Amino acid sequence: MDLNLKDFKRFEKQIILKKIGIYGQKKIKNSKILIIGMGGLGCPLLTYLASAGVGNIGIVDHDKVELNNLNRQTLFNSFDIGKFKVTQAKIKVKKIYNQIKIRVFKTKITNKNIDKILKDYNIICDGTDNYETRYLINDQCKKNKKILISAAISKFDGQLYKFNFKKKGPCFRCFMPEKPDHENNCGSEGIFSPVAGILGSLQANEVLKTILELKDDLNKNILIFDSLKTSIRKLKINSNLSCFNKCKK
Question: How far apart (Å, rounded) are the C-alpha atoms in residues 30 and 211?
């Protein structure tokens, strides 16, 4: 897809950046991104990707909007309660950028459907809230050499990962070889609402950097955000020889 006159006007503040320009904006518009999970992470992630001009986005979620979602899932309001998140998210985002193509998957990711859902997208964004689904997404992205940008939030903290499976390196199982006994997510431990917005925005930042092939310093690292200390640090993830996916090829 080429840029039209409205695109030039809408995205002029991005286009004038030397690291983006017209060529970069075309890359953003022609990118194909999949977001799995339209919750506290998926809402700001989708908003910023659409606002930046990403032209093709898939969104996956089987849940309906609930009252207790509204403190952090910023695309929704009280009129959306009881309606499917993906349906309402599409309606809201089309109002932000009406040229965007959004494909809705009103389903839960499973072994049976994940291949079909992932196949048309280059970058996969994981905003899910349970380890079983994270492992499944990780394994499938590794198998199909996709780029996986994943975030997790709980209480006052957040984590961001990027795994470029087009290259050799670790995966999520290297960082966490076995599923913990306890699910540490928003539902079980609570969440400070700005953390969701910050980590979703950081996911969007990493997606756009990846599209534009800018400095890739998050790959093979985990970014840890502490909202109480207002601190960010990065830790290296090493390939784990015991990883069943044999991360070290």
Answer: 9
